[in-house]
Amino acid sequence: MKFFHTFCSLLISCLVSATQAQSPGQPVAPRQHFPSTLLNIYSPDAEGWIVTGGGRNGIAFGKRGSESNETYGAQVIIFEMPPTGDSDEFIGFVKKRIATMNPAPRFVETGSGFEYTEARGYPCVNVRISFDDNAAMTPAGREQLKLKVVSLYCRHPLKQDLGFFAAYSYRGNASNAAIESAAKSFIEAIDVVK
């Protein structure tokens, strides 16, 4: 088992080699390429985005909205993934991972949709999910804000023990924030290096 974790760590360390040159807070160009050996990663295709985090397993981008407590986020993360028997088991794994990453009572799910697809030629799950974030940090302190996330979770077709997700999110007061078009553009650009 230790060999497996070391092996995965080596693979993950190759994911976003360019992020080591990008420090948090550094602005990025629209659709800036971040080369890696596992995924083709691009920043969102709009002005105003910065790197908010980067490491051996991925990269995150963020930008402020027009309101003081509005933020947008985009991220690509790779992770170890166990075998799944069928599409229902794959969806179950994704649901459990999302619940673990967004635990109650801070996050209260207000709506969700999960759709299995192989449109990319490998197994993925399209996710649309909304939460009430009961402890969002804002310039004014902690507030309850809406969190809307559009994401795609996939099993890497060449490294079957790895999965990845690309996610685009909005946090603010607008429960009907229109992020579908920007999310689709960001997520479609992320793909496996062939």
Short description:
Helices cover 19% and strands 43% of the residues. It is built from three helices and ten strands; from the N terminus they run αβββββαββββαβ.
What does this structure look like?
Helices cover 19% and strands 43% of the residues. It is of the alpha+beta class. It has one domain (2-192): Protein Transport Mog1p, Chain A. It has a seven-stranded antiparallel sheet with strand order 3-4-5-9-8-7-6, sandwiched between helices. Strand 4 and strand 5 form a beta hairpin. The longest helix has 15 residues, at 87-101. It is globular, with a radius of gyration of 17 Å. The protein starts with a helix and ends with a strand. The relative contact order is 0.18.
